[in-house]
Design a protein that fits this description.
- The chain is α+β, with helices and mostly antiparallel strands.
- A hairpin with a 2-residue loop joins strand 8 and strand 9.
């Protein structure tokens, strides 16, 4: 009985010792918010050349698999009315019913559904909800694991505004278009483990 008990105790200690390092790499949740994270937008606008803006309010969560060094899920929420640029009257137009209609659609969201590892890096796809329209969005991103408590992720979205029923536009006298169809969102997220 003494030998059997010794084997059980030894085996239990071995399992506990082996499981401790793996526990440190279990799925962990990280949270982020602005202004520590940055979400910037840009769209061609004939009057000023390019309308460049930043969203002052954002938040989200990331689930990260530390053992495989992979992102498993991402949720991002952006406050529509928090958009700001160096042009106050442009911002008022963008927040109005003519463009984003921040009063009716106060939040822009992305929720991931799938991740792929390609030769040129990881790709994410999921549902992007803008202006009351939800569509699939797929994009490549860069992941830098800074330490056990912080993740840094960055990427760029290229979005056709007309697919989200943001149709407002004007034609200039010489035939040019005032606002471009595509806008880009350059985002950099600094997320901390919670």
């Amino acid at each position: 009985m003494g030998l059997k008990l010794t084997k059980i105790v030894t085996g239990t200690i071995f399992i506990l010792c082996m499981s401790t390092p793996l526990a440190a790499y279990a799925d962990a949740t990280y949270a982020f918010s602005c202004p520590e994270s940055s979400i910037k937008g840009a769209i061609p606008y004939s009057v000023i050349g390019m309308y460049r803006s930043i969203y002052k309010e954002c938040s989200g969560k990331i689930v990260y698999d530390g053992l495989r060094r992979q992102v498993k899920s991402v949720e991002i929420s952006i406050t529509t009315a928090s958009i700001k640029s160096g042009c106050k009257w442009c911002d008022n137009i963008v927040r109005s019913k003519r463009v984003l209609d921040a009063a009716a659609y106060p939040v822009i969201t992305f929720k991931s559904e799938n991740f792929e590892n390609k030769e040129n890096g990881p790709w994410a796809s999921g549902i992007f909800d803008l202006h009351g329209v939800a569509k699939n969005l797929r994009f490549r991103f860069d992941l830098e694991e800074q330490n056990d408590h912080t993740l840094f992720i960055k990427g760029i979205w290229k979005i056709n505004r007309k697919k989200f029923n943001i149709i407002w536009n004007k034609f200039l006298d010489h035939g040019g278009i005032l606002v471009g169809d595509y806008f880009t969102v350059d985002w950099q997220v600094k997320a901390r483990k919670i």
